[in-house]
Design a protein that fits this description.
It is a single chain. The protein is α/β, with parallel strands linked by helices. The chain has 2 domains: 268 residues, P-loop containing nucleotide triphosphate hydrolases (Rossmann fold, 3-Layer(aba) Sandwich); 53 residues, no CATH class. Helices cover 31% and strands 17% of the residues. The chain has 12 helices and 13 strands. The strands form 3 sheets. A 9-stranded mixed beta sheet has the order 5-4-6-7-3-8-11-12-13, sandwiched between helices. Strands 1-2 form a two-stranded antiparallel ribbon. Strands 9-10 form a two-stranded antiparallel sheet. Helix 3 crosses helix 4 and helix 10 packs across helix 11. The longest helix has 16 residues. It starts with 9 loop residues before the first helix and ends in a 27-residue tail after the last helix.
């Protein structure tokens, strides 16, 4: 028997009408969360089955290779923590990483390794504080500016669970309570998630005393459960007041293979006869940080490099659609050179681009490229470069500085006698 009834198009018509009128429309999937307290939680399912191989059995076993979700520092089934002070850009870092993993994109020079079957990695992003509209805007901007991104893969494989997206009065799962942990673990299983981002610890869980190691038992057990469920985890966290370490007990660090601090960029400078350190303000606004690797145990043969990054948002007048947000960054070698320029230029050491090139052993054209890269990273502006070079000319006329000398590498080939003298 065939069903000749007309299909119900009321929901589709309503959505179309909402879009035409500008009325809110939210097609989000919904899942059920049952909240219960620790005392109500089930005590277990009886005896557990544990593996205990002998050495011979262990050596005879074959385990699947774990692939890199972000080469070379984030691997399948491993945990990492990203921490930073407020306003530095840790959520933008985490969201960009999630987009790159789910969409096979490239973020600060890192990209995911392909699965053996060619399918995309699936990512669950759990957010504890941002409005869903702000998350939407950030995603649009980052999608528009991320290179090599598979948009279709991102659309299907990056899932969001945000506190500020829920109905009023809805209990949101806490990652330090048994009910919340079980809910997240269930979603990971049912959604076949490969990576979960928890942004951030302070808004997704509670601890009684941040300085007491025992207060972190619940979150540590949860992070270990995530490993056992063979999912990679990125926990986003805050620094302490001094901004030199993450908040809370050092016990939290034990389960992580990788720990990353996003530092406010600083450079050394000379004042009178003493060297001091100052934080560099961003010339263009937006997230800007230096990546510091506190701990790396990712199994990669390639060690991650130092990175200085700045998120540059394009002028809205130039684009009819979403404004692209593009990460500008430099790695170790160029970063060291830019750091040195940031010290020497304000001191009036150089008076021309030619002198900059002479000092670093590059052409004036390459020296100009370093200047342009520093402008994109927010280290300085075109106006500041002009003032610093003018100051360099003034100091040179006064005899307070000397022209920089090109590096001399001839000493490398000098033949020395046994007494340490140069052989003639």
């Amino acid at each position: 028997m065939t069903d000749d009834r007309e299909p119900d198009t009321s929901e589709l018509m309503s959505a179309t009408a909402d879009e035409a009128s500008g009325a809110p429309h939210d097609p989000s999937s919904r899942v059920r969360y049952l909240h219960f307290t620790e005392s109500e939680a089930p005590k277990g399912d009886g005896p557990q089955e544990l593996r205990m191989p002998t050495t011979g059995q262990l050596l005879a076993a074959r385990f699947a290779d774990r692939r890199q979700l972000l080469i070379p520092w984030l691997r399948e089934h491993e945990n990492c923590m990203v921490y930073a002070a407020t306003g530095v850009g840790k959520s933008l870092f985490a969201l960009s990483a999630a987009l790159a993993v789910a969409g096979n994109g490239r973020f600060l020079g890192w990209s995911p390794e392909q699965r053996k079957d060619g399918s995309a990695w699936r990512v669950l992003y759990v957010d504890g504080e941002m409005h869903i509209g702000d998350i939407q805007e950030r995603v649009r901007q980052l999608l528009a500016g991320m290179p090599k991104l598979d948009r279709a893969a991102v659309d299907n494989n990056l899932i969001f669970l945000a506190r500020q997206h829920q109905d009023a009065g809805t209990q949101f799962p806490s990652i330090t309570e048994h009910a919340g942990q079980q809910f997240v673990l269930t979603q990971i299983r049912e959604q076949a998630v490969d990576m979960v981002v928890l942004d951030n610890f302070s808004t997704l869980g509670d601890v009684d005393d941040e300085n007491a190691a025992a207060s972190f038992n619940a979150i540590q057990r949860f992070l270990l459960q995530l490993k056992m469920q063979q999912v990679a985890t990125m926990l986003v966290h805050h620094t302490g007041k001094a901004e030199d370490n993450f908040r809370g007990s050092s016990k939290l660090a034990a389960t992580f293979e990788t720990i990353i601090q996003l530092e406010r960029p600083e450079v050394a400078y000379r004042k009178d006869t003493a060297w001091r350190v100052r934080t560099l303000p961003s010339e263009h606004g937006g997230a800007r940080f230096r990546v510091r690797w506190d701990k790396v145990r990712s199994g990669s043969k390639v060690q991650p490099r130092g990175v200085l990054a700045h998120l540059e948002t394009k002028d809205p007048e130039e684009f009819g659609g979403p404004r692209p947000a593009t990460w500008e960054y430099v790695e170790t070698t160029d970063l060291d050179r830019l750091d040195e320029m940031a010290q020497m230029l304000p001191a009036g050491v150089f008076q021309t681009q030619v002198e900059i090139g002479t000092y670093f052993g590059v052409t004036p054209t390459m020296a100009r490229k370093y200047i342009d890269r520093g402008i994109k990273l927010g280290l300085w502006t075109e106006d500041k470069i002009g003032r610093w070079l003018a100051n360099g000319k003034r100091l040179r006329r006064q005899g307070k500085t000397e022209a920089p000398v090109a590096p001399d590498k001839s000493w490398v080939d000098e033949v020395l006698t046994e007494e340490g003298e140069i052989a003639l």
